[in-house]
Design goal:
2 strands, Phage_term_ssu_P27, P27 family phage terminase small subunit, single chain, mainly alpha
Length: 109
């Protein structure tokens, strides 16, 4: 599996000796993978789904949307807690990467 731009950035800009920080990075990357898989499920099935229960049929929000919101909260909390070595100057080559869905999809298994 190839490394995403985000994974490379986090590894290059964090302390490899800080085991707690490295664990947070692993957790963050795991959550991003789940987030992306939920995104795929939402694209496949839509934001709302039709549920059939016997003769009844009703429309409800796709459960993946709710789970994605929960994961987003966790991702934001981890991001706030990262202690990264960010450059003091505004050198664009050293700033966090801008990713697209396509960049991250290649890393999904």
């Amino acid at each position: 599996m190839t490394k995403s731009k985000v994974e490379k950035f986090l590894q290059e800009n964090s302390d490899p000796e800080d085991f707690i920080q490295q664990e947070k990075i692993k957790r963050y990357l795991n959550l991003r993978r789940l987030f992306d898989k939920l995104d795929t499920a939402i694209r496949e099935h839509g934001a709302v789904v039709t549920v059939e229960n016997g003769k009844q049929s009703y429309i409800k929000i796709n459960p993946a949307v709710t789970e994605k919101e929960k994961i987003n909260v966790q991702l934001l909390a981890l991001e706030r807690d990262f202690k990264l070595f960010l450059p003091k100057d505004n050198d664009p080559s050293k700033l966090p990467p801008k990713t697209t869905v396509e960049d991250e999809e290649e890393t999904l298994v």
